[in-house]
Each structure stands twice: as C-alpha cells, then as structure tokens.
Amino acid sequence: MRIVSGIQPTGNLHLGNYLGAIRNWVRLQEQVTAEGGECFFFIADLHAISMPHDASQLAGATREIAAAVIACGVDANKSAVFNQAQVPAHAELQWLLNGTARMGWMNRMTQFKDKSGKNREGASVALFTYPVLQAADVLLYQATHVPVGEDQKQHLELARDIAQKFNNDFASEEDPVFTLPDPMIPPEAARIMSLRDGTAKMSKSDPSEMSRINLNDDPDTMLKKIKKAKTDPEPLPSEAKGLEGRPEALNLVSIYASVAEKSVADVLAEFGGEGFGKFKPALAELLVEHLRPISERFNELKKDEEQIDAILARGAFRAREAAAPTLANAYSALGLLR
Ligand code: TYM
C-alpha cells in the first residue's frame, strides 16, 4: 500500500480535518509501515496560492500546520512529511497532466463553483486547475489509497480519470505510468458539519469561530462552543432513525461517536431520552480529554521552528526521491526530449 494525502495551510486545524482525515493518516501509517508500505503526507502550500493570500504569513502557516499534523500523531520517522513547494515535481507533473485533463471535467468540479462563487471571471486560473495539481500530488507517488473527507471525493475521481486517460493515450496496458488511487473516507466522520448550521460543513473558511472546534482551542473555549452549538428542543432519540431531519443533533452525536470510536447506535443507547443539557457537557468533556495531549504537543512543537524545518526538509528529500521515477516516465511517455 502507498498512502498519500495533503492538507492546506490555511487557518487552524479543526475537528473536521482531524476526524475526517488526519486520524486516518495516523492509523494507516502504523498499519502500512508495519507491512513495508510507505506514507507521504504533505502541506498543500502550492494549493494555497489559488486564493488571495498573505505572502508574509504563508511560511509560518505551513510550519504551523506541519506541527499540528505531527501533534496529531503523524510520525516523521515513519511517514514522509513535507510541503509541496520543496518538491518541484508536483508543479511539473501538473503541467504534464494539463494536457490530459479535459475542460469539461474541470467545469464539473463543485469546489471551483463554490470557491469562485459569483465572481467566476475574477477567480484565479490556479483555482480552476487546482484539481489537476491534486491529481499530480497523488499520481506522482503511485498512491494506492488516499485518506480524505467526503468533500475531496470528486477531486479523487478526477485524479482517476486523468490517470486512466493518460495511461490509455500514452502507455500500454501492461506497463501503465500511473496507479489509479482509491479514496478512503471514514464512514462515521466523512463530513463533520458546522456547529452553527448542520447543513454546512465545518470549514476553515467559515467566518464564525463558533462554527468549528480548533484542535488547539483551550478547554473553556471548547465547552463554550459546544454549549452554544445549534440544536433543536427535542431529547435525543434512542435509535439512529430518530435523527433523520435533525442535522444538528446528528452532527453532535456523530462527533461523539467518532471521537469515542463507537457507533451512532451505541451512543444513542447511552444517551437516548436525554436532552442536550446532559449530552453537550458529556461531549465537551470527551473532546477536551481527547484533544488535550494533541494541543499540548502542538503548543510545544510550534515553538521549535528549526525542528519543523528539519522535518520538512527530510520529508521533502524522501518525496523527491520517490517522485523522480514516475515524473521521468511521464515526460518520456509524452515524447518530450530531455
Ligand atoms: P483541506 O485542507 O480542506 O482539508 C484537509 C482534509 O480534511 C478533510 N476535511 C473534512 N473531513 C470531514 N469533515 C469536514 N468538515 C472536513 N473538512 C475538511 C478534507 O476532506 C481533507 O481530507 N484539496 C485538499 C488538500 C489536498 C489533497 C491533495 C488531499 C491537496 N492535494 C491530495 C488529498 C490528496 C484540501 O483542500 O483539503
């Protein structure tokens, strides 16, 4: 197995990033490296320039997300941890894949529609071709599995389409240039929703801090955010089907289930019939206890810039080595003279 995944260095790491993706990175890292496979986890700093950004903040934000990922349990001795900008092969392969990606495929990407909003003409070209860079990110390493949240599924389907068309057009069936990657989406935490609106995903770009739990929120802040989380007046049902049509209640119960590593049914067996007055403090306590060690490690590590830079440099070295053969094959398959 070859595991590859990334995260953008915009804003803080939140509970959706953690439960939807990073916790799976940690689990897979243990399993896969024990079996002789490899893991590549990167900070998608090249993706971050697709939206207006503050250049003076980007390096700091990249280091901070790297520290957060390591605080969550990604082990830089087991996995390669790096940022894209230190591995030029990402940008190079993106250009090569631009020849294969079709305008029609790109036009269907919902993230571009969401992020460009009404100002399509004013959006950057990078925002439009963002999913091609994402395809390059995973195809470069022959990823077999990509642990992500539900919102990245469409981008990974595109990566498969690009790989398939490239293999078809420029390689033989016996000797393909790219492996088709499979997304790995955790069933219980595929889509963690905003605490203010159970129909919108928890996101770094939501202007309301109350909409998300950041991994380094202090216990009082977490408690306050959970207490103020939007709910309905009904008590919790004792069976999962009773959560239908109650998105906020479903979200809080799913968060509890995911953190406690229980099923939604088990959580409801415990709390069914209780009101949120009882459930919310229990959820807040669970979160505080679970996230405390992560937040402590993060606060320590982020002070040590030198150590983070050394980790990223080492990871980038491993990544450049791993990426070189595939990049060379892609150039050669396209008939480029080098
Ligand atoms: P990003 O930085 O938005 O999010 C990082 C990871 O967190 C997951 N995630 C969520 N999961 C569940 N519920 C949520 N509310 C939630 N919010 C975020 C995302 O699905 C993701 O797995 N384009 C990617 C970064 C990227 C990438 C890649 C990922 C660049 N290249 C190659 C995988 C493979 C992004 O912006 O993720």
UniProtKB/TrEMBL annotation:
Compartment annotation: Cytoplasm
Record keyword Protein biosynthesis present: yes
The keyword Nucleus belongs to this UniProt entry's keyword annotation: no
Binding, L-tryptophan: 137
CDD domains linked to this entry: TrpRS_core
Catalytic activity: tRNA(Trp) + L-tryptophan + ATP = L-tryptophyl-tRNA(Trp) + AMP + diphosphate + H(+)
InterPro entries on file: aa-tRNA-synth_I_CS (IPR001412), aa-tRNA-synth_Ic (IPR002305), Rossmann-like_a/b/a_fold (IPR014729), Trp-tRNA-ligase (IPR002306), Trp-tRNA-ligase_bac-type (IPR024109), Trp-tRNA_synthetase (IPR050203)
Gene3D superfamilies hit by this protein: HUPs (3.40.50.620), Tyrosyl-Transfer RNA Synthetase (1.10.240.10)
HAMAP family per UniProt: Trp_tRNA_synth_B
Name this polypeptide is given: Tryptophan--tRNA ligase
